[in-house]
Amino acid sequence: MSAFPILSRFQFDCHVKVVEAEPAQDMDALAAACAYHSIGLHVADQPGKILRIRPTTDGDDAEPWPRNMTVGEAGLKHYECIDIYFTDPGAA
Hints:
Blueprint: E1 4-10, E2 16-21, H1 27-36, E3 50-55, H2 71-74, E4 81-87
Parallel strand pairs: 1-4
Antiparallel strand pairs: 1-2, 3-4
């Protein structure tokens, strides 16, 4: 499968962005791709923090995917919505 669009809901960004995802990308690479469209445009950077990704849920309480998990392993599909958020480096 080639690249496909997903919906990025970035913490503190009032806009949902369409971002291209690759099945072989890990979550860190996908978070960086989403950050490119938000940090410095609609969201302030938070140096020293890391970005994590979780599936979008009604309660915004899903567990984040492992940082080394790939988009393909996560089972993301076209136009699926994900949450990207800042966390401390030592957080689970």
